[in-house]
Amino acid sequence: MKKITILILTLILFVGCQKSLDITKAEERDNIYYEVGQSNPFTGILTESYDDGKMKSEAEFKDGKLNGLLKLYYENGIIESEGHYKDGKMHGKAKTNYADGKMKLESNYADGKLDGVAKRYYENGVMKSEVNFKNGELDGVSKAYNEEGVLKIEATYKNGELVK
After folding, report:
1. Does residue 13 have a pLDDT over 60?
2. How confident is the model over 4-25, as a mean pLDDT?
3. Residue 109, exposed/middle/buried by CB under 10 A (0-12, 13-18, 19+)?
4. Would you say 61 and 44 are in contact if contact means Cβ atoms under 8 Å apart?
């Protein structure tokens, strides 16, 4: 039990000590981010704020590349979009919201390419489309709905090619 407590405290300390830097104090060179005046690629969290001081974006970097969670915010403080990155490429779940916080799009990425089901929603919350991807290409059943949720179109793809 004592070992678990020490491990948890160490993790909290490590996460809490991650360097945070305003984007105005960072620069990009050859697609790698650095703290201005530094020669080592930046590792930590880059932030950007609106003029009123509210958070506009925050992104985790490792060795100068996006690596971890990226969040963009509307001026009202609601999350506009969030996605996970690995070595500079989208990897994992990604979500986009309307300005009122309702879900607009949810998708999944693997190594920078769409992979799995991507779901898009109307502002009223009804599903607009459901599209399957594999390795960045349409693959499987794709469906589109009207604002009342009635199926309008259904198609089947395999390796990016329309099958049915």
Report:
1. no
2. 64
3. buried
4. yes
Residue 4: is its pLDDT beyond 50?
yes
pTM attached to this predicted model: 0.83
Task: Give the C-alpha separation, 120 to 103, whole Å.
Answer: 8
Separation in Å, CA 138 to CA 65, 112, 155 = 28, 15, 10
Closest C-alpha among 62, 20, 58, 59 to residue 41: 62
Angle 32-116-61 (CA atoms, 0-180°, nearest 5)? 20
Q: Is the dihedral of CA 88, 90, 95, 97 positive or negative?
A: positive
Structural domain boundaries of the chain?
20-89
